[in-house]
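I am writing to request your help with a piece of structural work I have in hand. The matter concerns a single protein, recorded as an amino acid sequence and a row of backbone structure tokens. Could you please explain, in whatever detail you think fit, how the structure tokens follow from the sequence? Thank you for your consideration; the sequence and its tokens are set out here:
>
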Amino acid sequence: LFLSCNSNKTARSVTADAGYFNAISPNDIQLDKPVAGEWRFEHKEAQQSVDDYQQAAPEKASIGKTKLYLLPLGSFTPLQLKGIELTREYLEIFFQLKTETLEPVADETIPDSARRTRAGGNIQLYTPYIMQHLLKGKIPPQGYALMAISEKDLYPHPDWNYVFGIASYQERIGVSSIYRYQGTGLTNENFTIFLKRLIGTASHEIGHMFSIHHCVAAKCVMNGSNSLSESDRQPLRLCSECQQKLYWNTGYNNKARLQALVNYCRRNQLPEDLLYLEKDLKAIGGH
């Protein structure tokens, strides 16, 4: 489950690089009809149009605040740290902003009042505590957004079982967990699916920090999710409409970003997502 906050509204507009977006928009993947238990069945959300996004006047990544920061929270194995480094690399490409990983913080600093133990000894950390005490006001001076990556499971409310990640639009902070992405433990055999899950959640949550809402226009990394199986069916690709929002915010080179994403998926054995991106690259006359 992915959560987020709201933002304020003021008018703006943009039509830049329309050729790119017109070329890739036919590649948007139609959403399936939701079934009971899935996010869109349980949550009736309106689509945030590009105009809606611009009129909300979200904070832009601008000179002086152009970096993204990751904060590892807990104790990680070398293979888990490899996944975090590949996530840093992916986010730098995805958002076209310099992304740095900060020194890890021990989760023992979180008090007993902000943790609980579930069946099988699974320790969960309370996300409101993390957001308020470890992240709020802690974005480094050059930072646009800060996301913690927790080694342990997370819960956002005493009545909830767990949450994959959570983010704040206004504070531009968030936290996600690797706990449910690695089965009984991370190995070389399940590393690829672990990586896809982590980069999907990280880009989704940081997308919220850019004030991009859940997408209900097409299959998109910004789709909401109620379960691991549901999120596994979602692509890493931003649909063309959500890409326009991010492009309006940061003004990167669309073709260069797309080529770098293609190269990343090739290097890291992500064939299904590579297929989507190569289709976009072909649509704009790339290779």
Summary: The two ends are 36 Å apart (CA to CA).
